[in-house]
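Q: I have 206 residues here and want to know how they pack in 3D. Can you give me a structure?
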Amino acid sequence: MLPSVGPSPTITVPEGTPDAYDEDVPATEIPVDELVPTGTAVTGSWPAPTSAGDAIVVAFEDRTADPFAAARGFVVWRRDEGADPPWRPAFGVMSRARDGVLAVQGSIDDITGDDSPDALMVERTGGVGNCGRWWVIDLSAADPIWRRSMCDAEVVAHRDPTGLEITATVYEPGDPHCCPSSIRTTVYAYRPPDGFVKVSEETTEL
């Protein structure tokens, strides 16, 4: 079973994030530069029509000339249609400049099997092993349900069964970093309340 994180006991958003957005418009029409912390610039956005209403994930970074010394992160916004205000931030993550996050990337897919889109986000930290920290966020609840830091690996949504697929290089003792012994592909199905449970694994020798 993959280590998971349950619902957050308190809602946290990056410091400087606006408290609300006042116009009752769909996620595809919202000006995303008004959803990020003061002094940052948008680097990506992912709208999602969830079972609980519209959501949007927005990635951002400090406005700095040095790409290796910028704070970066993402924030999840939720729309409560007809409410005042209709849009509010629900969850977010922000790294410090010294944390070494080089980019924030994301994708939207149903990862939990509830026919509602979720977000798979990764904070890329680079290095020889192309390291990163991955997040799965249940957008209908605005809760992070899984996170993990890994190197020499990639994580994507898996359709059948619904969950995650992790592809990782495998090094035997004495292997140089250029030449791993094999590639291991593991599929995890999302099965609440247990979280992500391993259902298959395949190793390919190189």
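Q: Anything worth noting?
A: The chain has one domain: 27-205. The radius of gyration is 18 Å.
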